Amino acid sequence: MAVEHNEAVVLRAIKDLVIEPIPVPDLKDNEVLLQMGSVGICGSDIMYWQRGGNSRFRLEAPMIIGHEGSGTVVKVGSKVKTLKIGDRVAIEPGTPCRRCHQCKQGAYNLCPDITFCATPPDHGNICRYYKHAEDFCFKLPDHVTLDEGALMEPLSVAIYACRRGEVTLGSKLLICGAGPVGMLYMMAGKVAGASQVLITDIDDNRLEMAKSCGANHTINVNGRDKLEVASEIEALMGGQPEVTIECSSVDYSYDLAINATRQGGCLVAVGRPSGRTLLPLDVALRKQVDIKGIFRYVNCYPAALEMLSTGKINVKSLITHHFTFNETLRAFETAISRDAKAVKVIIHCDQ
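User: That's the sequence. What structure does it adopt?
Assistant: Structure tokens below.
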């Protein structure tokens, strides 16, 4: 297939998102060229668009946005063995060096030289054609859609969080934040064996969706005292949760999480708060609550693919809006609109 024309969605500056022509990338021996299919909008994409940064990463030059992607192979490098033209794949967006200490220890997510889609200075994949390393593309079975393939990225974050928290058979799991990733944590936690999952948020619509997707309990914490909520969590679950996953990025939820988690339990800190976060560290120490951070994921895509292909997790239930490539700006506007009540927004680059 001859590919002569390419376009990308470029974030030129804060709130300046445009479609521009870009070159068709040249392939290295171990890379494949993909016609991009589905790309999901992530909270980090919105942070770059609205604020010019996410955590320690800052937008300092125009950047192609997007990292939750899937596509179809249209060309392969000379040493590619596992993929062929026509294969549909999910893209694991981080490509590590494979040589450093972290990579050789199996923690390639911590590789200091990792290239990660749409993380400055690396470009993302909301474009017509995009190249990626063969070994970080995962072939999709015929019955798994490109939309589902794109959502393997946030699902992998959820799987990694559950692994870090050691969610297992019979675990009581508290999740702070009922956004798309919060609901994926719930789904992944259930697959891992959690007997009960309780989700908190300040948005009744999202809590309703969480309930419909399998949450055992939900609590709207808007304006409520954290200790009162912690007591309610214990009463609803018949005991304090062994594992709490915080994904709302607000101080209130971190405080609630530490107070609500069982003695000797674990808090998995996923949400990235801005500035300095105030924690009741004395409570955490007295209760011997382990606080574990996570950074993206490592070796989770195979598990995500297995969960999707066997029907253990239904990510399609989280997709509320679809847009074409040329409608990308409207897609981003919808993702932040309260009136739209968007959960997961998908952009179709091949339309």
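The chain has two domains: 7-150+314-348, 161-293.
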